[in-house]
Amino acid sequence: MDVRLKRTEDRDLSLRMAKMGIKGIRKGEIFGLHHTIPYKDSKRMWKMLFGGSIRYKGVMIRKHLLNASFFPKLIREEWTMIVLIFSLILSIFNPLFLLIYLLAVFTKIRKQIKNRFFLAIFHRILQDITVFLSIIFFYPPIPNYNSKQIIIK
């Protein structure tokens, strides 16, 4: 696995395998538990956003942008960010094109927490901006493996 990634290492591995022609198998039965906190949990979402782990989504997009196996997942999960990019480009001609992005955000979060609607909107906008900027500017540090060896006698 790519040790520079702090998140989505398993997805990175499966995408690199798919690029080499190795197909993965998705099992129908549960054989292990991984995440106990739902991804839509509001505390987890804010922690990922402000803790910096959301930036690794941008690294995944940049790394696998030309991988055909990644396109369906990218469009299904990050379509609001794609709409943001096009809205920003079109807003050069007319700022009202940013309303298209706001409509996309409303559509994306319509099924989320009803009593925290505006908080969910704010979170989605921050997440899209963070992922977009991390595609361009964020490069994870290369780990340093020059550690001292301990010899036990």
Descriptive report:
The protein is an all-alpha fold. The protein has one domain (9-25, 41-137). Helix content is 54%, strand content 0%. The protein contains 7 helices and no strands. The protein has helices at 9-19, 42-51, 55-63, 71-77, 79-90, 98-109, 117-137. The chain is globular. The model has no long low-confidence stretch (mean pLDDT 83).
Summarize it.
The chain has helices at residues 9-19, 42-51, 55-63, 71-77, 79-90, 98-109, 117-137.
Largest sheet: none
**Strand tally:** 0
**What coarse outline follows from CA principal-axis ratios?**
globular
Weakly predicted, low-confidence segments: none
Give the termini distance in whole angstroms. 32 Å
* Number of helices in the DSSP assignment: 7
Q: Round the Cα radius of gyration to an integer and report it.
A: 19 Å
Task: Give the topology string: H per helix, E per strand.
Answer: HHHHHHH
Q: What is the strand content?
A: under 5%
Q: What is the percent of helical residues?
A: 40-55%
Mean pLDDT: 83
For the record, the count of structural domains works out to: 1
Structural class: mainly alpha
Topology summary:
Blueprint: H1 9-19, H2 42-51, H3 55-63, H4 71-77, H5 79-90, H6 98-109, H7 117-137
Give the key terms.
globular, 153 residues, mainly alpha, 54% helix
